[in-house]
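Long-time lurker. I teach an intro course on protein structure, and each term I like to show students one example going from raw sequence to a predicted 3D structure in token notation. This year I'd like something fresh instead of my usual example. Would anyone be willing to generate the tokens for the chain below so I can use it in lecture? Attribution to the forum is fine with me.
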Amino acid sequence: MIESLVKANLNLYAVLRNLPLLVKSDPVAAKTVAQWRIGIQFVVWRGPAATLVFEDGTCVFERGRHGNTEVVFGFITPAHFNRMMDGKGTPVPLKGFRHLGFMRNEFPKIADRLAFFLKPTDAKLADPHYLAVNTRLTLATAVFAARELALFDPTCRQVADRIRDGAVLLKILPDGPSAHLIFEGGEVTAGLGDVQRPMARIDFRDQATANAFLNGRLDPFTAIASGEVAIRGQTPMIDNLSLIFDRIPGYLG
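-- Reply from a regular --
Happy to contribute to a lecture. Here you go:
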């Protein structure tokens, strides 16, 4: 039961929350949602909830339940939501029946575009645009998934308890993208972009290196020894964080 709940958290708060980043990064995705004006809420009974708001070519993700949205989809269990994310289940429409045509015919276009970029192959990664978008989404997924695991996965919670308070920055040189995690008083915050005065950081030499590293195609020890990946600051924080990252494929792989 706990694994199903943790997976639902990752699917909603680390995978679907990539849609705003996808819209900003991919012209095809931006064109797809250009005329959309709709709020879609996902509510898992005794589980996570979040809202996606599309308006004037933008997409905003908000955790939790939020006011009036045109569409509300309910899921009776975390496993029910996970089945939908795996393409094997159907949500329960709680509100917005007149928008069912949109949800059936239009929303899958952006969901499929997200899935396209989150499932890399060697052929896809040969395209520079695909490489750039996949790298951004994979980096974002990693930090937001790590946050959920550090708080709710029993094994990762024990690991997170050993991480001292402070921020860990992951950055692709020279100019990003970047993402970070902040550990403070038992709470964990994940975000995109730089963070001031990180206690530890992982710097990737370039985009291709970051992509290979984040997708498990580059051996970490080899990458660090060769200088492709540089670790700075409080290395025990990174060692423990790496153990949490290692758990992500078990839920999302």
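Some talking points for your students: Strands lie at 37-44, 49-55, 58-63, 71-75, 92-95, 166-172, 178-184, 187-192, 200-204, 229-233. The two ends are 19 Å apart (CA to CA).
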